[in-house]
From TrEMBL:
<keyword id="KW-0472">Membrane</keyword>
<feature type="transmembrane region" description="Helical">
    <location>
        <begin position="173"/>
        <end position="195"/>
    </location>
</feature>
<feature type="transmembrane region" description="Helical">
    <location>
        <begin position="49"/>
        <end position="74"/>
    </location>
</feature>
<feature type="transmembrane region" description="Helical">
    <location>
        <begin position="86"/>
        <end position="103"/>
    </location>
</feature>
<dbReference type="GO" id="GO:0022857">
    <property type="term" value="F:transmembrane transporter activity"/>
</dbReference>
<feature type="transmembrane region" description="Helical">
    <location>
        <begin position="139"/>
        <end position="161"/>
    </location>
</feature>
<dbReference type="InterPro" id="IPR011701">
    <property type="entry name" value="MFS"/>
</dbReference>
<dbReference type="InterPro" id="IPR036259">
    <property type="entry name" value="MFS_trans_sf"/>
</dbReference>
<keyword id="KW-0812">Transmembrane</keyword>
<dbReference type="InterPro" id="IPR050327">
    <property type="entry name" value="Proton-linked_MCT"/>
</dbReference>
<dbReference type="Pfam" id="PF07690">
    <property type="entry name" value="MFS_1"/>
</dbReference>
<keyword id="KW-1133">Transmembrane helix</keyword>
<protein>
    <submittedName>
        <fullName>Uncharacterized protein</fullName>
    </submittedName>
</protein>
<feature type="transmembrane region" description="Helical">
    <location>
        <begin position="115"/>
        <end position="133"/>
    </location>
</feature>
Amino acid sequence: MICFFAVCKPLSIGISQNTSKKSKDFDPESTSNEDGFTKSIRSLVTSKVYLTYTVAMCFTLPVINSFMVFIIDFLTTNGFESDTRIQLYLYLQLGNALCRFVPGLCKKYIPHTSVLIIPACFTVIGSTAIALLPHAKTYIHYIILLVCLGMALGVGVTTFSMTTMKLVGLQKYSAGLGVLMTLMGISNCFAGPIAG
């Protein structure tokens, strides 16, 4: 087999590369700690909307994630056969995959929608689906509730980073997402044992 990257000649596209050094020398001692990460963290701590969003995400998404671990066991306990369990899990994942487009469509066709409304509505839908799943009686009930749960998971994953960026701004995005992901990881560690 011939490696194409070894025999192909690079194509010049006409962009010149600037190799000259800048006249200013960067002195790391001249910048204070307040200009970087610590300033971003301090401003995140003072943002009540961001803190509320972070706490809400740390309490809701781990519940859905921990339920996903036990969904096959839950369906087995309710008497479903192997093929039926896989079909129900497929419906859950179809709801997850198809609803990843919903936040973009909501922002496109309903332009004045708040960035917090979309994940909040679907979190309520997912929480309701989890609460009603133990009381489902028929196969159709399970399909509807699992699709709703998948919808909540798909929208939650899709809006995770975009909502953070809208709340904290582009300058503090990396710090905001880092704090949120760290706290989500910690809350996911506790959600599994709490779920049983």
